[in-house]
Specification:
The structure is a single chain. The chain is mostly helical. It has 2 domains: about 10-60, no CATH class; about 70-105, no CATH class. The protein is built from 7 helices and 2 strands; from the N terminus they run H-E-H-H-E-H-H-H-H. It has helices at about 10-15, 25-35, 40-45, 55-60, 70-80, 90, 100-105; strands at about 20-25, 50. The protein has a two-stranded antiparallel sheet with strand order 1-2. The radius of gyration is 17 Å and the shape is elongated. InterPro entries: DUF2795. This is DUF2795 domain-containing protein.
C-alpha cells in the first residue's frame, strides 16, 4: 500500500463540521459522513490513535505526500537547496550549527 496522496487542506475540509476534541475514530467517521475521498480517509487512518484538540492538531498529524503536485524541476530545486522529502521548510532553512560548518570544511 502506498502513501496517501492527499493534502492537509483536503483532510481539514472533510473535517469542517467536527466538534473538537475528537478521537481518531470520530475523525474517520466524520470524514466518511462528509463524503471524503478514499485518499483523505487513508490519510486519517495514518494518524496516531489519540484525542485531537483541534484542526491544527490534526494538520500536524496528517502525513501528506511532500512531492504531490510538484514537477521534477521543483523537486530538483528543493534538493539543491538541501531539501529532503518529508522535512518541513522551517527545518530546511535552519542556519548551520558550528559543528555542521566544521564538517563542511
Amino acid at each position: 500500500m502506498g502513501t496517501a496522496h492527499s493534502g492537509v487542506p483536503d483532510v481539514l475540509d472533510a473535517l469542517k463540521d467536527v466538534s473538537f476534541p475528537a478521537d481518531k475514530d470520530r475523525l474517520l467517521s466524520a470524514a466518511r459522513e462528509a463524503g471524503a475521498s478514499d485518499e483523505v480517509v487513508e490519510a486519517l487512518r495514518g494518524i496516531p490513535a489519540e484525542e485531537y484538540g483541534g484542526r491544527e492538531h490534526v494538520a500536524r498529524a496528517v502525513r501528506a505526500d511532500p512531492d504531490l503536485g510538484h514537477d521534477a524541476t521543483r523537486r530538483a530545486e528543493r534538493a539543491r537547496h538541501g531539501g529532503r522529502p518529508g522535512v518541513a521548510q522551517h527545518l530546511r532553512d535552519a542556519p548551520k550549527t558550528p559543528i555542521h560548518e566544521e564538517f563542511d570544511r
